[in-house]
Amino acid sequence: MDVLQELEREVAVFARRVEGARQSWQRHQDLDRSAYLILLALDNNGPMVVGQLANVFQLDISTISRQIAPIVGAGLVAKERDEIDKRQVRLSITPEGSAALEATRESRRQLYAELLADWSDDDKEQFLALLQRFNDRLRQRQQEQENR
Q1: Is the pTM of this model over 0.70?
Q2: Given 54, 60, 104, 126, which is the most exposed site by the fewest CB atoms within 10 A?
Q3: Residue 15 forms part of a structural domain
Q4: Strands of 89-93's sheet, edge to edge?
Q5: What is the CATH number of the domain that holds 35?
Q6: Which H or E run contains 92?
Q7: Residue 15 lies in domain
């Protein structure tokens, strides 16, 4: 058995199945992945300009701007001119955005609770630790690539 070949396949299947499970689970009108992550960043970091969000997600400004437009249109994010640099637009999560974010978080927690119901606490903790380690390594690799 080639472990890396199996790992590549399992990660691809994991990504697809998690998204499929999330979509079929939707007890609420869950946010799509990009909206969820943008709202999460604004919730965690406070108001940000578009360039800051682009840096957080390692995307170009045009891509993040396309992802922001529908959530601004839905009233989940507010735009206002930056006080210091009037050329910049500052984005902040609205009360409606906070409510949508929390509803999506709760829906996802319920889904994961169902999927992991028969796992021991040790198994859950080990899975979490390995997933965090994997994500940390992906983040580190992206930073290394940018610094080249």
Answers
A1: yes
A2: 60
A3: yes
A4: 48-49, 89-93, 77-81
A5: 1.10.10.10
A6: strand 89-93
A7: 3-115
